[in-house]
Specification:
2 domains; 12 helices; seven-stranded mixed sheet; TIM Barrel; binds iron/sulfur cluster; alpha/beta
Length: about 400
């Protein structure tokens, strides 16, 4: 039986996609090995006419070893018409390959190509703002095992991005690609990460007018979060990654020794108390530790009033985990359905902000396609619709430059 759009998204994250040489990718967004390396796949949009949104965006793995033996391959390409074919049963799914925007090749006033400052990940702009995460310079290295930031920042992307570089790139992305949300991250910077990011937030809010998300290591001085909220930050996310302390210490040795896992939850709880419901998220990786832990992490995050963002583990080339197996579809489908159910249980207004489709994860509202159609489902979907409509003026206001 053919998969629905979310099931296809999940299966593609688990299996990847083969790209036959005779299928032209002219004009498509190039594979971009930036930030932690999770965007190292092909950006696609899967039609999803039954959702509040019309498409599901994803960054499908194409270069990793598991993707080379995927049952899926890309076909077509004439007149930019593409389909994904499942060789197991010849199912065929029409997809769109979003075009690379002209501003990628444009230079900032400091002569830096804009694609070396920020890249589109789905409909959002992702910018790694700070210097290389400090866990990469420890001896021995203390980086998270799935991450390739240390190999990307300064190589495939600019090592130093000035506030002007960032503002100019944000402007181009807003005006020409209709971007509404920029996601700023920066790895571990000791106790100075939040301080360092403040001038970028200030300039983007005042000069560009975008929704701004910040994803940095948690810091113990919580007043720094108040300062960023005062500057206009719209979203904080905390990369918890793994719930079990032993798995956390094994896969994220730097985070475990520098912060300890409890600080991630404490900072997330604090920010959730400062901001509107749904403005904070906790990010976890599914497919590394046993699934029961992932389900529990989802429940704990949602109970705080934050929404869970669940990343399906990708054994990214060049990472310490590149030889690990990709996760199983059946488990990941179960996890994503659980994610939606947890959001529903806690009345989290997922999908309320305009035009935020992150391609690196299964967005919580993508997983509506996995949900059981019971009475609770219809009540929650009505609530989400109301949150979108009622919240629109506030989001418009927050996207005005000063
Ligand atoms: S904290 Fe971990 S995931 Fe984040 S940049 Fe550093 S090594 Fe990578």
């Amino acid at each position: 039986m053919p998969l629905n759009a979310c099931e296809l998204e999940v299966d593609l994250f688990c299996h990847g996609l083969r790209l036959p040489e005779d299928v032209p990718l002219t004009g498509a967004r190039g594979v971009s090995r930036t930030r932690a390396g999770l965007g190292s796949g092909l950006e696609i949009a899967i039609p999803a006419p039954s959702l509040a949104k019309s498409e599901i965006w994803m960054n499908v793995p194409v270069v990793e070893r598991f993707a080379q033996i995927s049952p899926y391959h890309l076909s077509g390409g004439r007149a930019r018409q593409y389909a994904i074919v499942d060789d197991r049963d010849d199912s065929r799914y029409e997809v769109r390959l979003p075009e690379e925007p002209p501003w990628y090749e444009r230079l900032t006033s400091r002569d830096v190509p804009m694609h070396r400052v920020g890249v589109l990940q789905g409909t959002c702009l992702g910018i790694y703002v700070n210097p290389v995460c400090a866990f990469w310079s420890y001896s021995p290295r203390r980086n998270c095992q799935f991450c390739t930031t240390g190999a990307n920042v300064g190589v495939s992307e600019q090592a130093v991005k000035t506030v002007d570089d960032v503002v100019e790139t944000c402007w181009a992305a807003k005006q020409e690609s209709g971007v509404t949300f920029v996601h700023l991250n920066g790895g571990f910077q000791g106790s100075r990460g939040l301080e360092c990011i403040a001038p970028y937030v200030d300039a983007i809010k005042k000069d560009v007018g975008l929704l701004v998300g910040v994803q940095l290591s948690p810091e113990r001085e919580f007043r720094r979060y108040d300062e960023l909220v005062a500057l206009g930050v719209d979203h904080f996310s905390f990369c918890i990654e793994l719930l079990d302390p032993e798995w956390f210490a094994r896969i994220c040795p730097g985070k475990a020794s520098a912060h300890g896992q409890a600080l991630y939850f404490d900072a997330m709880r604090y920010c959730a108390s400062l901001m509107p419901k749904g403005a904070v998220s906790g990010e976890i990786i599914a497919g590394i530790e046993p699934m029961a832990n992932t389900l529990r992490a989802i429940d704990e995050i949602a109970a705080i009033g934050a929404f869970p963002t669940v990343c399906i583990f990708r054994p990214t080339i060049g990472s310490d985990m590149e030889d690990w197996p990709a996760p199983e579809y059946a488990e990941m489908r179960h996890v994503m359905r659980h994610m939606y159910e947890a959001c529903k249980r806690h009345w989290l207004p997922i999908g309320a902000a305009p035009n935020i489709e992150v391609s690196l994860v299964v967005n919580p509202d993508d997983a509506v396609l996995l949900a059981e159609r019971d009475a609770g489902y219809y009540w929650y979907e009505a609530y989400r619709w109301l949150a979108r409509v009622a919240g629109a003026p506030a989001f418009r206001h927050r996207m005005r430059a000063a």
